[in-house]
Amino acid sequence: MNIIRRPRRNRHSAVLRDLVQETQLSTNDFILPLFIIEGQNTRTEVASMPGIYRHSVDLLLDEIGECVDLGIRAFDLFPNLPDAKKDRTATEATNPDGLYLSAIRAVKDRFPDVVIMTDVAMDPYSSDGHDGLVENGKILNDPTLEILGNMAVAQARAGADIVGPSDMMDGRVGHIRRMLDVHGFQDVAIMSYAVKYASAFYGPFRDALQSAPKFGDKKTYQMNPANSREALIEAELDVAEGADFLMVKPALAYLDIIKLLHDNFDLPITAYNVSGEYAMVKSAAQNGWLDNDRTILECLLSIKRAGASAILTYFAKEAATLLR
Ligand code: PBG
Question: Is the residue at 257 inside a domain?
Fold first, then answer.
């Protein structure tokens, strides 16, 4: 056969394949989301996320210690609160002695060098289970901004390095930036959930935090999965308002959006490999239908290849172990 170009030549041996590998996955890329609960010496497994636990703060410190030993150095914390601590205005979110802010302080105290990212949204603290303030069945935008601004400042005061607004209210990045600056937190970064879709893949996360909306859905603030041009509008606004990172969420069903943002914006693009994506891989692997380790690394590599420089993923610990 007279075939001049033979791409298979570069795949002949492991060394050749490594030489031409375009994308490398590293433990430096990972941000591990962690769930926190009240109490002492307590951890409960999330039923829909095998291997993922809600930790009381003392055990959270042990968990982070193990992760640091594996090379993971960035964490995103989420609180699971009892219903009794939830109300309409998410009061508990700014309680300095509450679960969340105490946990941030405890982690930064023990591990000053790790990066702590926080979640800015009302849902874990809201009796309505929505990310914004609810009135007569509607999610109010501008009054929510005031609550989110105070929440971000309280988190920065507790030691957060990056605040992550996940609420999708209009104007929240700009408002949070101004509030942080006024309070002297110029160095606290904002990782905006710039392009966050109204996705079925958040189900297991809402189980983990018992934070599902008490009525309706999140479609008046989260984006329609059918849209990609709208992603550019959301990203442009967040750049103009002062975001330091642009996140796409979920990741795997939205690789085109990661690529779109990567090709159109200079800020680092991050992606959230969400709870449902974790649950899908884990349930198939537990049934012996997919190879757990190879599937995890392939998913994460794909997200990076699409253009994400950092990945929020519940697989961080397993992947870090595999990458050793
Ligand atoms: C809520 C929030 C959600 C997630 C992160 N922050 C869920 C939602 O919007 O309902 C989902 C993360 C995941 O599924 O892993 N502000």
Answer: yes
Express each pLDDT in 107-129 by its tens digit.
999 999 999 999 999 999 999 99
Confidence at residue 123, expressed as pLDDT on a 0 to 100 scale: 96
Question: What is the reported pLDDT for 301?
Answer: 98
DSSP per-residue codes, 143-187: HHHHHHHHHHHHHHHHT-SEEEE-S--TTHHHHHHHHHHHTT-TT
Q: In this predicted structure, what is the pLDDT of residue 162?
A: 98
Atom of ligand 1 lying closest to residue 274 CA? 15
- Alpha carbon separation from 280 to 48, 50, 160, 277, 298 (Å, rounded): 9, 11, 31, 5, 14
The answer as to whether 13 is a domain residue is no
Which CATH number do you get for residue 79? 3.20.20.70
Two tokens at 195?
């392009």
Distance 199 CA to ligand 1 centre (A): 9
Q: Which residue range is the domain that position 135 belongs to?
A: 22-323
15 within some domain: no
The total number of structural domains in the chain stands at: 1
4 lies in some domain = no
Any ligand 1 atom below 6 A from CB of 275: yes
Low-confidence ranges of the chain (pLDDT < 50): none
Give the atom of ligand 1 at the shortest distance from the alpha carbon of 278.
Answer: 15
Q: Which are the catalytic amino acids?
A: 196, 249
